[in-house]
Write the structure tokens for this entry.
Amino acid sequence: MVALLGQRDELLKLVEAAFDSEIVVRGNEITITGPDDEAEHVGRLFEELITLMEKGHALTPSAVGETIEMVKGGEASPSEVLSDRVLTGRGRSIGPRTLGQKRYVDALRKATVTFAIGPAGTGKTYLAVATAVKALQDQEVRRIILSRPAVEAGERLGFLPGTLYEKIDPYMKPLYDALYEMTDADALPRLMERGTVEVAPIAYLRGRTLNDSFIILDEAQNTTPEQMHMFLTRIGFGSRAVINGDVTQIDLPAGQRSGLRVVEEILLGIEGIEFIHLGGRDVVRHKIVQDIVEAYQRHGERGASANE
């Protein structure tokens, strides 16, 4: 009961704050009094928390909060979502924390090409890199290729000083950060030196065929339709590709169409291609980030309605 309710009932207080029902704990018995629908939700919540503990998942305020959100939304089993593990290493486990992220991870595992479209903080890049590292460890692929458009430099990286890696480093930093968290810090430079892990702007992929690779294109909202087409036709035998982006943060010049905006209407329905849309409820950063994302979405919807 201490594990379930938390030290000094800190987890129980989270549940009480989220529901109007009265929750009474006596020994090993929990009594819930309130409207039938809500009491049923609270009962299911405790069942899911117990299942999580049985699966070896430590209950934290964050995990309880995520479980409450999923139960309130009437979504799939929170215990199935939160007990899924993409990668375990360096003393921590990486896996989905929302139903949207669970759908994303499932798509990453089975699809040849996965598109993830959603706001910042929804784990698009992080979960893609974790899945790529796992595939490399399991010898499902021979290399990981990370790419993104260097829009701020107009892809004219030759004008920047230093080697290729020094030129592109500012644009690839989010990908590097994720890799460093998931691999041995000493091993990563060796993997990059051998070409097992390759980082390059999208322009450097032109003319290549990428076999036996896990390819991640990040910030894909900043690709043109022509660049998107070029990237997708680089996929070779034994390869999988993940394309991530946020269509609300396009940095292309005014009047230039985003390849990520048009690709779904072109490719939707093709076998082996999955489109996953993530939203504010999938943001796993600070709670205020979720509130900001949802506020911007509401503002955008109001603006669209006013222009109709």
Notes: The chain has a mean pLDDT of 86.
